[in-house]
# Entry
Amino acid sequence: MGTALGNSFASFAVFRFALGFGEAAVFPASSKAVAEWFPKKERALATGIFNSGTNVGAMLAPVVVAWISGRWGWRGAFIGIGALGFVWLVLWLIIYRKPEEHPSLSRAELDYIRSDPQGAAEKIKWASLVPLRQTWAFAVGKFLIDPVWWFYLFWMPGFFQTRHGLSLTRIGPPLIAIYVLADVGSVAGGWISSFLIKRGRTINAARKIAMLICAVAVTPVVFAYRVENTWSAVLLIGLAAACHQGFSTNLFTVPSDMFPAEAVGSVTGIGGMAGAIGGLLIAWVVGHVLQWTGSYMIPFVIAGSAYLVALAMIQLLAPGLGPAKIN
# Structure
């Protein structure tokens, strides 16, 4: 909301930083809530469902922002969209309770939620999390895959305009199709690992098999820059977006597999910071690559290979997704 009050580049930058700082807390809080409310065998599917909401928001935002801007101007759009965050916060504070504090939860339901072995609840400091290999497994994964998602978000409109000649008025349907496929991938990725766990696979195997499927299925996107037909490119990028969200859903679930609920939010926050740094780097890389070569080949090669590299690093740092030993 503060961005609407900026009357210079400096003030806008300050408010934009505050926006990024504030919204960064949502995913750690959501991941912690999933860890508190779901046993491990159901967490990936629950994460996939809440993760899909980001794509629904991305599809609705252009319509809502255009409507608000038409009635109350661009400042009204910033204020209106920003105010929704306070509405969500009020609802969260009113509705959300930990399972053991929820008045409508039966003892049988609480026992089911707590069916995994429970450690002693205690406050855990960030300093004790940073040295752990499990923390770095999640952070490195986020550092490698988040930039790909930022590439899709920020560079796809330009790609379809320059490569396929789509004007701003015609670019809506392709982008909506990509976001819809991303939603499907988010839920499907969570369902795959939850299904495998229920069929007897270990948590480690289920998460990594699901991520491997996504990492392999995303590779055809390396050819998207060469495809002449617009909707063929949309399908390749849509498949890659779906695979990203499926991979991301399982990656977001990994901290709750390795850490107690009290640490999940902090570990997710550390990973989110690593992902944001990667996002800054990809913006610089793509901008310079396009300036030097005029081709999207290198960005799409990065997009198609990042997930296999990320999974290899996760396997190296956390081969069994075992519980972190926190001092």
Notes: Residues 40-95 form the longest helix (56 residues). Residues 9 and 15 are 10 Å apart (CA to CA).
